[in-house]
Amino acid sequence: MNASTSDTKTTRTICGYCGVGCSLDLVTRDNRIVAVQPAFDGPANQGALCVKGQFAYDYVHHPDRLTHPLVRNEEGQLQPASWDEALQRAAQGFIDVEQKHGRHAVYGVASGRTPSEANYMMQKFIRVGFGTNYIDNCSRA
Amino acid sequence: MSNPLVDMEKPDVIFCIGTNMTEAHPVAATRLKKALARGAKMIVADPRRIRLAEMADLYLPIRVGSDTALLLGMAHVIVREGLADSEFIATRTEGYDELVDHLQEKTPQWAESITGVPAAKIEEAAILYGSSDKGAIYYTLGITEHICGVENVQSLCNLALLTGNFGREGTGVNPMRGQNNIQGAGDSGALPNNYAGFQPVDDAANQAKFEKAYGRRVDLEKGITKVTALDQCGDGIFAMIIDGENTVVSDPDQEHCIHALKSLEHLVVIDIFLTETAELADVVLPATSWAETDGNFVNTERRIQRVRKAVDPPGEARPDWWIIGQIAKRIGMSGLDYDSPVPIFNELCELSPIYQGIDWDLAEGGQYQWPIPYRGHPGTPRLHEDGFINGRGKFSFTDYRDPAETIDEDYPLWLTTGRRLESYHTRTQTGRSEGINDLLPEETLEVHPSDAARFGLHDGGWARMSSRRGAVDVRVETTRRSPQGTVFASFSFAEVPINVLTGSGYDPITHTAELKVCPVHVEPIAESAQLAAD
């Protein structure tokens, strides 16, 4: 495969599966991943990839991907909502719970899968928002 | 890991315990294969005869949950045989004399009575590791997912301290981290006891530092762990925000977990799919996936590496950091409204002593392993070279304890859980990737042929497996990978929710669940009730 033709591009990134942190090049065309190439200069993997890193990327373009916010309606069903409506609803729920039960009634769980910037934001959200250390990530299970 | 991945090619003796590395960290395992090809010897301790065990020079088939007994027995032999590194002990450790007293009774015969491994093999392992110039220990969740996870790790550190296997090439105590950025999650302060960079929250100086940075005074008291928070849902905890975790399938005791999340007055889930956990939420917010995101991951060797956006996200999906910032803004918080990940990472670096020497631009090349204490510092591939952070390495006086639940007449088999090469966690991703899903389309229960005969099971048939918490139906695979008396399954398949069964106990310090040990009962059934219902 020639990754340098005009309609394909390669993007150097890090595998999203385990903690080894293999470097790889995502080959994309028309805004879709068409291949993964191991990076021979990747410090953690030196050109190696496992079956997950090499092949298990279809999920990125899977039709099950969430494409818009969902909000639970009065009938108890999750229904599509605008970002503004969903964010407002998310925020109001935390405001209501804090008013009713106090600031120690709110808890945040950060992800081992997201970039550090998301983790940092989650802990800052809890600490700045509620003045507590009621924050953890998914490393205990 | 105390040592870099490249060091995995350098040991004379490799000791792997509680790590199924060829399946869970396959690329790291290729490094060990290089060491073996060079002539290194390998000891593998694991209840199951995994691929790594087949590659080992010495395989120790321990009973699940008996790791501490094995490690104490090995330490006893190292001391008895005069293999302890007296210079290292004198200059860099404390508590050696007490340890020697403590180990007096921990003979290999005592260890045999608990682990089931013959004393002679325990002696052989201790002498092999203790005689090496460069001995390296590798472990994963088989060490930590026990009620005695802390003692297990401390017992491993004892071995490395006794033999001077710290701070040099090809040595160390090396946990293999399981998720792409689980290291980064801790580094970033997403912990109830630490601010970013592992700065304890109960230190008043840190409280003052972050009050200045954040404009809000945060409690001096530690927070509670997620395990405790789930216990308190509906009774203390009433709102939760969960980012990118399928708690319902990954956590122990599924019924308890679902009940907990349903008891909340407000649940917000940020994810890329409508997971079993997202289905319980009041608000579900669509996030970008790994290929659609700019940011940084931190790997198991503490290496900070850039992830880059390669494709646009589907529909209206947005980056996690943006979503959290927008909720914060609507609550009226200040200081969380960023327009790119760059200032977020730079703020993390400024506030974290271990990241002090870098920023977004410097992290671009992926060459830094923390700690990077100041600008111009090259990073620290190998920890503890010139000394331990807290002065001397302390020996721990650990002891063996039984798992939270032990086998009996009603639940006569040990279940141990884990991962498989072709699945990742709860399969929200690998279950939606065609090729790899074909390789492993369903879960099986791995049963030793003699146990299958004893319980009337047959290869390819169905079993109902029950614990004190629940029951699941699963197809049977007879295999000698499982030792007699122990069965194995992964927790990856939502259709075979193994975590309905688990949750017997937690490590009292880390609150890590004992996912590796669960007494069960098995019986043959005609077919899965779930399949019949479909």
UniProtKB/TrEMBL annotation, chain A:
UniProt xrefs under SMART domains = Molybdop_Fe4S4
The UniProt keyword set, sorted, is:
4Fe-4S, Iron, Iron-sulfur, Metal-binding
Asked if the record carries the keyword Cytoplasm, the reply is no
Which PROSITE patterns does the record associate with it?
4FE4S_MOW_BIS_MGD (PS51669), MOLYBDOPTERIN_PROK_1 (PS00551)
According to the UniProt entry, its GO molecular function terms are: 4 iron, 4 sulfur cluster binding; metal ion binding; NADH dehydrogenase activity
What residues does the 4Fe-4S Mo/W bis-MGD-type domain cover? 8-64
Cellular compartments per GO CC: membrane
Name of this chain's protein: Molybdopterin-dependent oxidoreductase
From TrEMBL, chain B:
Stretch forming the signal peptide: none
Q: Where is each Molybdopterin oxidoreductase domain found? A: 1-330
Heme as a keyword of this entry, yes or no, is no
Iron keyword on record:
yes
Q: Which GO terms describe its cellular component?
A: membrane
Please provide, alphabetically and separated by semicolons, the GO molecular function terms listed in this UniProt record. Answer: iron-sulfur cluster binding; metal ion binding; molybdopterin cofactor binding; NADH dehydrogenase activity
The record's InterPro entries line, in alphabetical order, gives: Asp_de-COase-like_dom_sf, MoPterin_dinucl-bd_dom, Mopterin_OxRdtase, Mopterin_OxRdtase_prok_CS, Prok_molybdopt-oxidoreductase
Annotated keywords: Iron, Iron-sulfur, Metal-binding, Oxidoreductase
Molybdopterin dinucleotide-binding domain: from which residue to which, for each copy? 413-519
Q: Name one Pfam family in it.
A: Molybdopterin
An example GO biological process term is: respiratory electron transport chain
This protein is called what? Molybdopterin-dependent oxidoreductase
